[in-house]
Amino acid sequence: MEPLEIMLNQLREVARSAIELVPQLVVAVVVLIITWLVAKGIRTLVRRAIRSRLRPSLRSLFVNLSAIGIWLLGIMIAAIVVFPNLTPAKLLAGLGLGSVAIGFAFKDVFENFLAGIIILFRREMRIGDFVECEGIEGRVDEISIRETHIRQPDGQLVIVPNALLFKNPLTIRTDLLKRRTTVVCGVAYGEDIDSAREVIRAAVEACETVDGTDEPVQIFACEFGASSVDFEVAWWTGSRPLDIRRSRDEVIAAIKRALDEAGIEIPFPYRTLTFAEPLPVASVREDPFQKEQDGV
């Protein structure tokens, strides 16, 4: 009977300890309920305070961080109420060791999280911008805490970790409303260079997609090509990729049409073959049978 009595005594001790903890557990539950109400109120206040000052993702971050801070404080108070021997110093020490272990385990997650916060504070990259980074190019659809969604020109969605955008050079193609683009146009060596330049200039300036209000059209003779004197034609147009393609299409068609109307030759590639010794010329005899076949 001794083992049974020992077990019964242990059960009585456990029941007595549980009954003694009931008031503390009730107080801890009340603390958690108050924490939930305070966290809910803090979320509402923070959301109203920063309604129009920050990006939606950044506002959501601050709202969630404020609620998490309130919950951590409430849980610490509830734990101290239930376990009086547990001091705030011990809790903070435990949280410190736990955070170090979690940090090593989720290094990449926290790296993307911190990079996302920095990116969200940047004003250069906005939703709808066209960007390019490490061969990934497209329109920014969404910027979140951990990742950025980039819609490529062919419609595919690329989810990019924020650490990639933060640690590598990032090109924002639509940072300005206008962007300069260029094409190369060649004219024959026998044409007058100055006349060809003015014809090209007039054709480009007449295009609707060319913005010449602030920056003029620039035309420079850039090199002696294999079959032509090449001009670099530069102008300003919309910064979106579709704007660039439309403008290049219109400008190339206008230059071709203007040079044709002015009688200025756009040469085909020429190739001159030089031999060290004269080549013998062989005559080709007429085939009588072939004449009969041709009806001659």
Structure description:
There is one protein chain. By secondary structure, this protein is α+β, with helices and mostly antiparallel strands. The protein contains eight helices and eight strands. It has helices at 2-49, 56-82, 88-105, 107-121, 162-167, 193-205, 241-261, 288-294; strands spanning 130-133, 136-143, 147-151, 157-161, 171-172, 178-187, 218-224, 229-238. The strands form two sheets. It has a five-stranded antiparallel β-sheet. Helix 1 (2-49) runs antiparallel to helix 2 (56-82) and helix 6 packs across helix 7 (241-261). The longest helix is centred in the N-terminal third of the chain and has 48 residues, at 2-49. The mean pLDDT is 81.
